[in-house]
């Protein structure tokens, strides 16, 4: 069973959203009408009280901030062009299969593909007043080209998140896709629809007591890029 806690973060209008009446497919291509047809420069909105906390069972929580990055269509285009996207292959049973999404990863000593992402990392570190160990330092990137791309149920449990509470922040660009969360061991799923500059932060025990996924879909969906900010020692 799914509980539509937040039917679509995209529905709550922020500056990153396309003008009303513009078909999604055009918006997803970064085409903007009205206001001079200029693509809007990417910018971060405030955090503070615009961040809404949802307390989950098992010591987990989720923070959501719809439309945190305005001009997200431009960011999407930049990331498509600048990130060295790779198709990974993994052994599954007796076959080698392509991972159904493109991936890239930036560590704390790498040059990140756009200064806005480093500013987003800094703004989150300031918002959470995180001590050194909990500061976001790396950026994992996933590119979901269409509904055939997705990520199966998992917790981000590589590294110390296997034992410790950690925060994982996700900033989404491009077309919205559903991110589902469900408690380990069963229970209703929560559904967040993330794209167009939305922010979602998983925290507390979320990586251990909950799982998340981006399900594949037969619906016609546009491409989405997810940037996952993580602290040291967590992948
Ligand atoms: O697409 C997303 O926002 C989630 C990606 C994810 O869960 C992961 O890469 O660990
Ligand atoms: Fe994950």
How does this model look, in words?
With 235 residues, the protein is mainly beta. It has a single domain (2-17, 38-231), classed as Alpha-ketoglutarate-dependent dioxygenase AlkB-like (Jelly Rolls). The chain has four helices and 15 strands. The protein has helices at 24-28, 72-82, 115-127, 206-209; strands spanning 2-3, 43-44, 52-55, 60-65, 69-70, 86-92, 95-106, 136-144, 151-154, 168-174, 177-183, 189-194, 199-204, 210-214, 224-231. The strands form three sheets. An eight-stranded antiparallel β-sheet has the order 3-4-13-10-15-8-7-6. It has a five-stranded mixed β-sheet with strand order 1-12-11-14-9. The protein has a two-stranded antiparallel ribbon with strand order 2-5. A hairpin with a 4-residue loop joins strand 3 (52-55) and strand 4 (60-65). The radius of gyration is 17 Å and the shape is globular. 40% of the residues are buried. The model is unreliable at 1-35 (pLDDT under 50). The site of fe (ii) ion has 3 residues, from loops.
């Amino acid at each position: 069973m799914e509980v539509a806690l937040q039917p679509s973060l995209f529905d709550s209008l922020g500056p990153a959203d396309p003008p009303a009446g513009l078909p999604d497919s055009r918006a997803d291509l970064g085409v903007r009408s009205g206001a001079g047809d200029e693509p809007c420069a990417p910018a971060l909105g405030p955090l503070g009280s615009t961040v809404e906390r949802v307390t989950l069972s098992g010591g987990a929580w989720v923070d959501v901030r719809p439309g945190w990055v305005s001009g997200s269509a431009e960011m999407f285009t930049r990331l498509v062009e600048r990130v060295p996207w790779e198709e990974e292959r993994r052994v599954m049973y007796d076959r080698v299969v392509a991972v159904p999404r493109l991936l890239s990863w930036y560590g704390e000593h790498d040059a990140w593909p756009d200064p806005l992402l480093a500013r987003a990392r800094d703004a989150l570190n300031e918002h959470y007043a995180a001590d050194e160990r909990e500061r976001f330092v790396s950026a994992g990137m996933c590119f979901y080209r269409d509904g055939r791309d997705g990520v199966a149920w998992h917790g981000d449990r590589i590294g110390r998140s296997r034992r410790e509470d950690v925060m994982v922040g996700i900033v989404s660009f491009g077309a919205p896709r559903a991110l589902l969360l469900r408690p380990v061991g069963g229970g209703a799923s929560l559904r967040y629809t993330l794209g167009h500059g939305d922010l979602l932060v998983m925290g507390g025990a979320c990586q251990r007591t909950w799982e998340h996924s981006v399900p594949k879909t037969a619906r016609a969906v546009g491409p989405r890029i997810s940037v996952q900010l993580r602290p040291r020692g967590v992948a």
